[in-house]
Amino acid sequence: MSTKEKIQEVLQVDTLEKHLNEIVLYNDDVNTFDHVINTLIYACDHTPEQAEQCSILVHYKGQCTVKTGEYKDLEPRCTMLLDAGLSAEII
Predict the structure, then answer these.
(1) Separation between Cα atoms, residue 47 and residue 40, nearest integer Å
(2) Residue 14: CB partners within 8 Å, gap ≥ 6?
(3) Where are the alpha helices (DSSP H) in 1-91?
(4) CATH code at 21-90
(5) What range(s) does the Adaptor protein ClpS core domain occupy (predicted)?
(6) Which of 14, 18, 56, 85 has the fewest CB atoms in 10 Å of its CB?
(7) Has this prediction a pTM greater than 0.85?
(8) Which pLDDT tens digits describe the chain residue by residue (91 residues)?
(9) Distances (CA, A) of 7 to 4, 10, 63
(10) What is the rounded distance in angstroms from the CA atom of residue 89 to the CA atom of residue 81?
(11) Residue 50's CB: how many other CB atoms inside 10 A?
C-alpha cells in the first residue's frame, strides 16, 4: 500500500491598491445613437458591440459607466466625449 502526501503551500500575494475612477456617460435628447457609438469607439477604445451596448444602457437607464481606470488616463478621454457634445463626467 502506498501513501501520497499532500502538501499545502501558503502563498502571499502583495497587491497595490489603486483608486480607480469611472467615466459616466449621461443621456441627452440631442445626440444620435450613431454619434454616441462612434464617439465611444474613438474616445474610449470600445469595440462596436461595447459602444452599442453602452449607448442602449444610457438611453434606457439614463447613464452608464463607459470606462474605468486611473484619473490621468480618463481625463483626456472624458474631454473627447465632452468636445463631441456628449454629457459625461469622471467620478
Answers:
(1) 9
(2) none
(3) 33-44, 48-61, 71-83
(4) 3.30.1390.10
(5) 20-83
(6) 14
(7) no
(8) 677 777 777 767 666 677 899 999 999 999 999 999 999 999 999 999 999 999 999 999 999 999 999 999 999 999 999 999 999 999 9
(9) 10, 10, 50
(10) 9
(11) 15
